[in-house]
Amino acid sequence: MTERNVVLVTGAGGWLGSLLVNALLDDPKTPDVQLVLVDIVEPKAPAGANAITIKADLTDPSQVDGIFQTSHGIPDTVYCLHGIMSRGAEDNFDFGLKVNVDSVRLVLNAARRFGSDIGRPLKFIFTSSLAVYGGPLPEVIKPDTIATPQGSYGAGKLLSEILINEYTRRGFVDGRIIRLPTIVVRPGAPSAATSSFLSAIIREPLKGIETTCPIGNSLSSPELDLAVWVASPETTVKNFIIAKHVPAAAFAPHTRVVCVPGFTATVREELAALEQVGGKEAVARVRFQDDATNRRIVSSWPARFDNAYALSLGFAVDEGGMVPVVERFKQQVQAGLA
Ligand SMILES: NC(=O)c1ccc[n+]([C@@H]2O[C@H](COP(=O)([O-])OP(=O)(O)OC[C@H]3O[C@@H](n4cnc5c(N)ncnc54)[C@H](O)[C@@H]3O)[C@@H](O)[C@H]2O)c1
After folding, report:
1. For ligand 1, is residue 13 a contact (CB within 6 Å)?
2. pLDDT tens-digit series, residues 122-133
């Protein structure tokens, strides 16, 4: 049976969810895509899209089956993006597990049942995170590096990954697990992610607003050498689409986890890129107030990965480091889009 290009997106009202929706509409490999957009907050469909929008709380079992039973028919592909972010999951352990694990399992079980109804496992694309890694780590993370999370968000993501891998091994779904770097620059209001400041220290100054960097106490603090693993939203969304098109047989036989490509940047390099793009007056809008909890969590995440496996599967990588990322964001600010 051929795919009908019906794509269900959970978390469609969120940042990456809404970027993904636009990318799906532009994907020449999924012409006439029919979308089912789901979020706990009423998601918006782009003008002209063939989209059904559903407001649903996916932690409520009674609301899950309905998202698979719309007039578009059973989806071929599920993008499972809904979730609560790192600081939210760290500060509220039970709620974090409920959203980042229990509700993912509900959606996964529904995908299994509806896939069985149509006699073909649904593609199940899940956005995981580098936060699955922590503790003593090698200098460079490789596909065989064992994930030992040191935060509740990463632990929740890893639990969901294991379920998706197992459901894939059993043939219940065709899982694709993409471990994302931290995505910068995020527009809009600060999020509940521990990494939120990595966007805020670019975004707010370029918008003429002061912001507080929770790493270090001044521009000369050694803490600013903290390195992070990042990717731009443009490349990330491209990789969401690629994740759908990678042939199942191309993945390593024992896992569907792929650490999608990113690059290393230090907080100091981010601020240097800000200065290059926005000038000294932009950097002067960054205040410093070291937050030990925030720094501990971000420091526990790895900052260097071997991109080779992901690149061999066809995933894309940012070129040119932070400066082009900050330049693109400045253009969005100037266009009133950020
Ligand atoms: N942004 C990043 O840097 C980054 C990095 C790694 C992984 N991720 C993962 O990518 C995904 C998308 O991230 P984002 O930055 O767009 O986050 P986001 O917070 O902007 O979007 C998440 C969406 O999930 C929705 N949601 C939360 N609970 C829900 C529920 N019970 N039922 C239905 N919807 C619910 C929220 O309303 C929100 O719109 C998440 O799974 C996140 O963990 C993001």
Report:
1. yes
2. 999 999 999 999
